């Protein structure tokens, strides 16, 4: 049982790291001369890289704010889930354990899915490509979807683990 708990803790910490990377790093939409995330746009001209924050004058600013908020909320919920797991491990009796942690992880999973889905459907409205369709999804976007899968699996593991001794 100790090995299972250690595996779950490592899995949960991996989920948190993936969420932090996908939320912070500047690679949601990339091209040869630019990269865009949910916070700023960076353009490369030869050796110069110029980064600009996404401002409220952008026509899709509310959409971007929604993506930002759900990614931050997902990261916070995942961190709270880890804290909840540790506290429930020693405080609750068998059968009651980890239900709260599973619910928190499921909410984190839902937030990542919402953010990545909105970005998938609306990215063409706010990426800086000179020609529509120019560019590709970056690794931060892919990591967000992997974090979705990890948080979903960990919430299911917590539900299964709640009955184990």
Automatic annotation (TrEMBL):
It is found in: Apical cell membrane; Cytoplasm, Perinuclear region; Golgi apparatus membrane; Membrane raft. GO terms for cellular component: apical plasma membrane; Golgi membrane; membrane raft; nucleus; perinuclear region of cytoplasm; plasma membrane. Gene3D superfamilies: 1.20.140.150. Keywords: Cell membrane, Cytoplasm, Golgi apparatus, Membrane, Nucleus, Transmembrane, Transmembrane helix. It is a multi-pass membrane protein. The chain crosses the membrane at residues 5-24, 67-86, 98-119, 139-161. The keyword Transmembrane helix applies. Its main location: membrane. Interacts with PTK2; regulates PTK2 activation and localization. Interacts with ITGB3; regulates the levels of the heterodimer ITGA5-ITGB3 integrin surface expression. Interacts with P2RX7 (via C-terminus). Interacts with ITGB1; the interaction may be direct or indirect and ITGB1 has a heterodimer form. Belongs to the PMP-22/EMP/MP20 family. This is Epithelial membrane protein 2. The gene is emp2.
């Amino acid at each position: 049982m100790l090995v299972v708990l250690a595996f779950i803790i490592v899995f949960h910490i991996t989920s948190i790291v993936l969420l932090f990377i996908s939320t912070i790093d500047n690679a949601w939409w990339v091209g040869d001369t630019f990269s865009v995330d949910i916070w700023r746009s960076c353009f490369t001209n030869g050796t110069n890289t110029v980064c600009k924050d996404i401002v409220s004058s952008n026509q899709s600013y509310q959409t971007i704010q929604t993506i930002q908020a759900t990614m931050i909320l997902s990261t916070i919920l995942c961190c709270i889930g880890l804290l909840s797991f540790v506290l429930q491990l020693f405080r609750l009796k068998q059968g009651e354990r980890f239900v709260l942690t599973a619910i928190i992880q499921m909410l984190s999973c839902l937030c990542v899915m919402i953010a990545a889905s909105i970005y998938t459907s609306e990215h063409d409205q706010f990426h800086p490509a000179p020609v529509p369709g120019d560019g590709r999804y970056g690794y931060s976007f892919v990591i967000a979807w992997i974090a979705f899968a990890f948080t979903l699996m960990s919430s299911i593991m917590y539900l299964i683990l709640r009955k184990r001794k």
